[in-house]
Amino acid sequence: MAKTNIEWVMDDDGTQGKTWNPTSGCTKVSAGCKKCYAEAIAKRFWGERKFSDVQFHEDRLDAPLKWKKSTKVFVDSMSDLFHKDITDEQIDQVFAVMAMAHWHKFQVLTKRPERMMQYSRTAKQRIRMATVDLGRKFNRDIGLFESCEWDYPLPNVWLGISVENQQVANERIPLLRHTLATIKFLSCEPLLEKVSIFDLDEEISELTQKYRSKSQKMVAPADFINWVIVGGESGTDARSCEVNWIEDIVEQCKQYQVPVFVKQLGSNSQVPNLIGTSKQKLKSKKGGDINEFPENLRIRESPKN
């Protein structure tokens, strides 16, 4: 629970946002997890505890309520809130705190969109009850929740999914479509190949088939993707990210008028030199210096909410 240097968590005034980890630990589910930064941090600082040991931290729940200044908060930078080892009741408590801390904007990112989608569509009353219970415990004003006069989905909670390749896009993005959230976003990081995020491939997973009718066209319209983050992989032995893959994501977002945030080009990325006849290695360790980006990628937009 601290200030973070993650660029897309920055507040609108340019100050640092925060991370909040009411849960910690995770397990790998797709190619994007291969070089997990959170696992690397855990190996350095967690001692004998394994990163796969997923835990809920009740003692951290009230932290956002103590932060008086409105800020953006990345929820579970060291975990996935929708991991199978986190119970619905525990998720209810996390959402209850986000409901009470209405002056913050919470960003929840998952690689488990099926559970996120199902949870968002069934949890309204449970979140209300958890808010009433925790509100009394933390001595907070819960009048709206006792009288049921509250907005759902929570207007200050953004729900997003990770997308690293086309297969994952085909599986996860349609599930995001059915998720109840005020802001729905994609984090295309680490981007491992060229990906279409709006007009999806016709061949989709069996999982996705369950959540659409046979007559529903397999197209992801812009009206349910409110924001896209894109970036290459960083760290030792980072997998390569072609600049034109990022350019393609940016062009797709422009076409559908969706705000896009280019976070970084990645540690193993090269850009054309000033003459444009060859490529040069970036000086920035993770390719995150916007001054090294090609001009058409110097874009860091956020949704208006």
Describe the fold and architecture:
By secondary structure, the protein is α/β, with parallel strands linked by helices. It has a domain at 1-162. The protein has nine helices and twelve strands. Helix 4 (113-122) packs parallel to helix 7 (166-177). The radius of gyration is 20 Å and the shape is globular. It starts with a strand and ends in a 24-residue tail after the last strand. Residues 295-305 have a biased composition (Basic and acidic residues). This is Gp37Gp68 family protein.
Topology, number of strands: 12
Are there runs of 5+ residues with pLDDT below 50, and where?
Answer: 214-220
From the N-terminal CA to the C-terminal CA, the straight-line distance is 24 Å
What is the mean predicted local confidence, pLDDT? 90
Principal-axes geometry comes out as globular
Instruction: Tell me the strand order in the biggest sheet.
Output: 1-2-5-6-7-8-9-10
Helical/strand content category: alpha/beta
Largest sheet: 8 strands, mixed
Rg over C-alpha atoms, rounded to the nearest angstrom: 20 Å
- Could you tell me the strand content as a percent range? 15-25%
Protein name: Gp37Gp68 family protein
Biased composition (Basic and acidic residues): 295-305
Region (Disordered): 278-305
